[in-house]
């Protein structure tokens, strides 16, 4: 991993951590003390998290993540119906996102070589591999 990627990951984790603290403070202030989470509740939440990860892997087309999270969801007790619903939702989300992306790209007339003020976005000088 290069330094820019490492910094991006570090920054994203810091934002996530800060947002979690804000939600925790808001929740305590508005909803009272945090209840004890029992094993059954945690198991259901873990399964839900894995199903969400399955859907996310489909949306970003990550085969390794899909294989990993499908296996974990099954280990946690996901039923075939749960998996079918998850895959269906992910396909719908991915399809809708791609339609919106294509609309944006079409609206830009595929002019991605420069910004509105004329600065170059990519090319040999930027080292991104574009020509």
Summarize the structure.
By secondary structure, the chain is mainly α. The protein has helices at 3-31, 39-59, 63-75, 80-107.
Describe this protein's structure.
The mean pLDDT is 84. The protein is 69% helix and 0% strand. The chain has 131 residues and is an all-alpha fold.
Main attributes?
single chain, 131 residues, mainly alpha, AhpD-like, 2 domains, 4 helices, extended
Layout of SSEs?
Layout: H1 3-31, H2 39-59, H3 63-75, H4 80-107
Helix pairs in contact: 2-3, 2-4
Strand content: under 5%
Mean pLDDT across every amino acid position: 84
| Count of runs of 4 or more consecutive helical residues | 4
CATH A-level architecture of the largest domain: Up-down Bundle
Which CATH top level class of the largest domain fits? Answer: Mainly Alpha
Give the CA-based shape: extended
* Largest β-sheet summary: none
Helix and strand element order? HHHH
